[in-house]
Amino acid sequence: SLQRLADTPARYGAAADLSVVDAREADITALVKDPRVAALDRVSSVSVTLGNESAPRTVVAVEQRKGDLPMEVVVGTRPSGRYEIALGPRAANRLGVGVGDFVTVTPPGATPTVLLMTGIVVVQAGGLGALGEVGLVTPLQLRDLASSAPVVSAEILAAPGQAESLVAELSSRWEVYRTGMPNEVRNLAEVLSLPKLLALVLAAVAVAGLVHAVLGT
Known about the structure:
- By secondary structure, this protein is an alpha+beta fold.
- It contains seven helices and ten strands.
- Strands 1, 2, 3, 4, 5, 6, 7, 8, 9 and 10 form a ten-stranded mixed sheet that branches.
- It is flat.
- 32% of the residues are buried.
């Protein structure tokens, strides 16, 4: 399961190769037409508080504009209607909620809204929130939650061999981030080498024991 996690970026919210921050609609349209772009999601985000918490959290709405960027659904489904939300695994665990529960979402300076939780998902958000903390709503619901203009990013999956070319070109015009493996996942991935190391150590001990037994005989 650790190997599957390390080898499947969508499982830790990194299915895209790069994120373009503050992307305008004209920019997104141009990127959709670029043959080097295999898939693109338009991600709008706002800051809210969840439940009785006071710390701000990120909630996003994802619109597929090209191709299919996978999103890991741990349990349940993505929200499909108004007054629905899916939470990241960490947020759901911290709030003690699951599919079918209700979550109070409060935009800054606005009236709280109660949303039905439809699932637990790991959202591609380009560094907008900590791993497993980002919530997902529909574009219509995001507009209701937005007390100001949402932050918009373009999450891009490059065609094979085109990621470096895209980053080099787009970085000269926009703020671009390369998607990478989070530290939490990287630390887990490093554990994958332990079984092989342990096997080598045990084999060496076995060989040393065998040699000692032969010499003793």
